[in-house]
Design a protein that fits this description.
mainly alpha, about 60% helix, single chain
Length: about 70
């Protein structure tokens, strides 16, 4: 089984999600109106939503149910 080298630390999930959302929005702006453009916009919105959910889940104010 090949070993995975982990030399470079990854950026935090929230940062990666926001970068992906910006990339997808830029791609969508370059495309003509249609289903491919709509799909890129939808994926960008999903990435932003995932970033917000991740922020909420990792917030210090979140407590386990009793």
């Amino acid at each position: 089984m090949p070993r995975i080298q982990r030399n470079q630390p990854k950026a935090p999930l929230q940062d990666r999600l926001m970068l992906e959302a910006m990339r997808l929005k830029d791609e969508a702006n370059e495309l003509p109106p249609g289903s491919l453009r709509d799909a890129r916009i939808r994926k960008a919105r999903q990435a932003v939503t995932a970033s917000h959910v991740n922020e909420w889940l990792s917030s210090p104010g979140l407590q386990a149910p009793r």
